Amino acid sequence: MNNHRFNRILVAVDDTPCSVRAIAYAKDLVKEFNSSLALVTVVPPTSPAAYGADPLLGQQPIIVPEVSEIQQESAQRYLESVGQDFEGAHEVFLFNKIGNIRDEILNTASEWTADLIIMGSNGRTGFEHFISGSVSESVIRKASCPVLVVPGNCD
């Protein structure tokens, strides 16, 4: 039997209670395996704002680049604060991405050659799950390495 070891652990984080629980699990595993750690957060692309735009007059919605910059800077500060809390990590990498959450998690895991992905699940069920889908489910389906989904009541 192979001795599976998680040398490279990727943790998908955001500033929700679901991530806090996933981070707690990741801390234990990183310490146990003396793993390298990568933290990834994904900011969805900024949608155009319709403020002051009137489609009847042919005015187009505008994109405010400052909003995107503020989101990126906030995400970077969050990543840095989470990364400082990991003791026992061989090394820590931070990935601050913009794009589709599932795609960016999978791309980062592939490019960084992660041995394990850890992420939280928001626990949506029923109609809410049907409408919004589940990032964790889609990551599980497409990932090329094991995925640990930390469930919980993360409302």
Derived structural class: alpha/beta
Q: Note the gap between the termini.
A: 40 Å
Question: What characterizes the major β-sheet?
Answer: 5 strands, parallel
How big a fraction of the residues is strand?
A: 15-25%
Strand tally is 5
State the helix count: 5
Question: In words, what does this structure look like?
Answer:
By secondary structure, the protein is an alpha/beta fold. It is built from five helices and five strands; from the N terminus they run βαβαβαβααβ. It has helices spanning 17-33, 65-84, 101-112, 126-132, 135-142; strands at residues 8-12, 36-43, 92-98, 116-120, 147-150. A five-stranded parallel β-sheet has the order 3-2-1-4-5, sandwiched between helices. Strand 2, helix 2 and strand 3 (92-98) form a beta-alpha-beta unit. The longest helix is centred in the middle third of the chain and has 20 residues, at 65-84. The chain is elongated.
Explain briefly what this protein structure is.
Helices cover 41% and strands 19% of the residues. The chain has five helices and five strands, in the order E-H-E-H-E-H-E-H-H-E. It has a five-stranded parallel beta sheet with strand order 3-2-1-4-5, sandwiched between helices.
Q: Keywords, please?
A:
about 160 residues; alpha/beta; 5 helices
SSE diagram, text form:
Layout: E1 8-12, H1 17-33, E2 36-43, H2 65-84, E3 92-98, H3 101-112, E4 116-120, H4 126-132, H5 135-142, E5 147-150
Helix pairs in contact: 3-5
